[in-house]
TrEMBL record:
Pfam (any one): Tlp
Biased composition (Polar residues): 39-50
Region (Disordered): 39-69
Entry protein name: Small acid-soluble spore protein Tlp
InterPro entries per record: SASP_thioredoxin-like
Acidic residues composition bias: residue spans: 60-69
Species of the source: Paenibacillus selenitireducens
Length: 69
């Protein structure tokens, strides 16, 4: 038997996802600042692209969060 669809804590999960994604952006930026001279331009570019995707994801999460609240 399938579990019932319980969405009572969706807003909390989305908020956690937003916070975790923001933290990942900050960690990546700190890494780039600390190791700028040690890492290749390709890796810098890849990490910057990841952060761009993360920022877009946050926008989506925030829309979802507003729908849930």
């Amino acid at each position: 038997m399938a579990k019932p669809d319980d969405r009572s804590d969706n807003a909390k999960k989305i908020k956690n996802a937003i916070e975790n994604t923001r933290h990942n952006i900050q960690e990546t930026n700190a890494y780039l600042d600390e190791h700028a001279e040690e890492i290749s331009s390709t890796e810098v570019n890849n990490l910057q692209q990841k952060n761009t995707k993360r920022k877009r994801a946050i926008e989506g999460f925030e829309e979802e969060y507003h729908d849930e609240t």
